[in-house]
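Let us practice reading a record.
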Amino acid sequence: MDSWIATRLPELSLTAVIDILVVAFLIYQVAILIRGTRAAHILIGIIVIGLVYNVAIWARLEVLQSILSGLMPYTAIAVVVLFHPEIRRALARVGRKRFGRSARRRESIEEIMLAVGKLSETKTGALIVMERNIGLRTFIESGVPLDARVSRDLLLSVFQKGQALHDGAVILQKDRVSAAACFLPLTMNPSVSLQLGTRHRAAIGITEESDCVSIVVSEETGDISVAVSGEIEKCNDLKRLRERVLGHFGEVKLIGATDETALEEAAEERVSRREKAFEQ
């Protein structure tokens, strides 16, 4: 019996082990990619149809087999159409450069943090998108071009209630405000809470399309949230928010406690000087 099994099973070589590990890794990546999305339910449906087809062959159900076999040639097209958001996201991740993350000046980060803190304090709705490696030109072109240096005052003026640029998102490229009032795609993830409004859904949606970082301020509660890779998290602590943003841009290890305090003091001093100049 043992000899019969030994003759039936192929020899497990190093190449076979590598092959199995690669296939397992790809299956895992696909599962991570579609987890919590509509594609997961669609994939389950496709698997069920495949099982039914194999059962039809085994049970010699000729009518059912002929119907399903007629649908098989169109399966590839159906997969591309149904899974095009996930396929696009996967290809973008594969093509993303892992080296040389986007350089972002620390002063610009501090200006953003000061603006977000003030927006949260006044309960002013805002959506700030920070570009990383995958370009956002398509979404930038949907808004009003600014091409201005990032500053607390500029961000506060853009999101001031009643202003023409208040609605929509601000997109930042490195230390520049590229555009305001930009239209962003809304997430279609069914697992996202129904309590989240359009601004939060747009913050999640744009991070599903690219590797950017989105910061959103709730107009109702003033709560601050950060969205990355299709996931959103409430983050009212500005220090923790700063660490999250710096971490995604690969600069968190470059900042110590002394440097962080110095940056905060310098940013506050710049704001104080501008306010005094405005009063004069």
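A brief commentary: Strands lie at 126-130, 144-149, 169-173, 176-182, 213-217, 224-228, 231-234.
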